[in-house]
């Protein structure tokens, strides 16, 4: 019998050198897709009992409790983040607690690749692939938004002011990685006056 | 580039963040009367669409956002969006009244029902 082991989408990639920001893959993230009605009190109570947090109801927000985070994806969909080791156990606990309540819980830890971007000028680097105004106050830490990034579907999570997580579907991981390697090489911050940074 | 607003999650974005779903308020005849659906009714349901000059009603999807479908009223001449409203809703009354041609015919009954209630 062969043993099962986890291989993340970007395991074969080396740590990038000479970028204007730090870029790496987060390999130990567990993800659970949770769907249900936010207006269903029983559903919200059951989820709180397991996760210890109230699911965010406001669009594009997130809530965390300990090492568990709930990201708002839609009015009836959330992405639960935890450590990879905990995902299986948490999925089972949620399923058991939700029981016959109309809902859906799926462990999707291997569905997406998680890219962590860190450093001064992260927003400007991401702007190269997006039409959102990432420099505005709408994108404060904690903001979550599904977006079109470099022509593919991505999920943006503002972790801290200059720390961003980008979630892309697994099959797009290499493409997103290459796109970031190309666009993150030169700093892109634009100053109002004086000489600008050299373009790529 | 059209700027679209999602009435479900409030996201504002480019046309590329959304997905146009064609004409709104199409009723599937077989849903309401599965036993007697004429070929003409089925043909109209599948293929025949309005193509008005001016006010038009469309379906859109918040494709890169919350993933929900919604309705939009748009002027096909100026490309201006007049309103965004829920997928189960009818357009605002003034837009139903402003509709012309095939849309005016379609909304006539709805306006009457609206006035009664």
Q: Low-confidence parts of chain B, pLDDT < 50 over ≥5 residues?
A: none
CATH fold name of chain B: Folate-binding fold
SSE pattern of chain A, N- to C-terminal: EEHEEEHEEHEEEH
Biggest sheet record of chain A: 5 strands, antiparallel
If classified by CATH, what would the architecture of chain B be? 2-Layer Sandwich
The radius of gyration computed from the alpha-carbon positions of chain B, rounded to a whole number of angstroms, is: 15 Å
CATH topology of the largest domain in chain A: Alpha-Beta Plaits
Number of helices of chain B: 4
Radius of gyration of chain A, taken over Cα atoms and rounded to an integer in Å = 18 Å
Distance between the termini of chain B: 40 Å
In terms of per-residue confidence, which ranges of chain A show pLDDT below 50 for 5 or more consecutive residues? Answer: none
The fourth-level CATH homologous superfamily of the largest domain in chain A is Heterotetrameric sarcosine oxidase
Q: Which class of the largest domain in chain A in CATH terms?
A: Alpha Beta
Can you summarize this structure?
The complex is a heterodimer of chains A (200) and B (117). Chain A is α+β, with helices and mostly antiparallel strands. Chain A has helices spanning 41-51, 84-98, 122-127, 173-183, and strands spanning 22-26, 29-36, 62-65, 68-74, 77-83, 103-107, 112-118, 144-149, 152-160, 163-169.
3D architecture notes:
The complex is a heterodimer of chains A (200) and B (117). With 200 residues, chain A is of the alpha+beta class. Chain A has 2 domains: 22-26 and 111-183, Gyrase A, domain 2, CATH 3.30.1360.120; 29-107, 2-Layer Sandwich (Alpha-Beta Plaits). Chain A is 22% helix and 32% strand. In chain A, the strands form 2 sheets. Chain A has a 5-stranded antiparallel sheet. In chain A, strands 3-4-5-2-6 form a 5-stranded antiparallel sheet, covered by helices on one side. Chain A is globular and about 60 Å long. Chain A starts with 21 loop residues before the first strand and ends in a 17-residue tail after the last helix. Chain B has a single domain (3-89), classed as Folate-binding fold, CATH 3.30.2270.10. Helix content of chain B is 30%, strand content 26%. Chain B contains 4 helices and 6 strands. The longest helix of chain B has 16 residues, at 101-116. Chain B is globular and about 45 Å long.
């Amino acid at each position: 019998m062969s043993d099962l082991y986890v291989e993340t989408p970007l395991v074969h990639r080396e740590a990038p050198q000479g970028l204007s920001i730090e870029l790496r893959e987060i390999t130990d993230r567990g993800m659970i897709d949770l769907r249900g009605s936010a207006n269903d009190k029983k559903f919200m109570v059951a989820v709180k009992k397991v996760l210890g947090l109230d699911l965010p109801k406001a669009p594009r927000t997130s809530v965390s409790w300990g090492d568990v985070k709930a990201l708002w994806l839609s009015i009836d969909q959330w992405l639960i983040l935890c450590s990879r080791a905990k995902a299986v156990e948490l999925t089972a606990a949620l399923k058991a607690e939700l029981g016959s309540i109309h809902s859906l819980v799926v462990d999707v830890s291997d569905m997406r690749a998680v890219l962590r971007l860190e450093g001064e000028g992260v927003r400007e680097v991401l702007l190269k692939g997006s039409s959102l105004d990432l420099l505005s106050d709408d994108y404060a830490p904690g903001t979550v938004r599904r977006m079109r990034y470099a022509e593919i579907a991505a999920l943006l999570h503002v972790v801290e002011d200059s720390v961003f997580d980008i979630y892309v579907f697994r099959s797009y991981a290499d493409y997103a990685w290459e796109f970031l390697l190309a666009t993150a090489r030169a700093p892109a911050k634009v100053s109002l006056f004086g000489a600008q940074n050299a373009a790529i | 580039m059209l700027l679209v607003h999602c009435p479900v999650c409030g996201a504002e974005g480019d046309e590329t963040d959304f997905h146009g779903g064609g004409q709104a308020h199409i009723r599937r005849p077989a849903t309401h009367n599965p036993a007697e659906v004429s070929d003409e009714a089925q043909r109209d349901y599948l293929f025949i669409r309005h193509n008005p000059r001016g006010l038009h009603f469309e379906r859109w999807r918040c494709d890169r956002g919350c993933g929900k479908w919604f309705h939009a009223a748009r002027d096909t001449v100026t490309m201006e969006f007049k309103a965004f409203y829920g997928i189960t809703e009818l357009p605002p009354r003034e837009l139903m009244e402003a509709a012309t041609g095939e849309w005016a015919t379609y909304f006539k009954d709805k306006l009457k029902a609206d006035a009664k209630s």
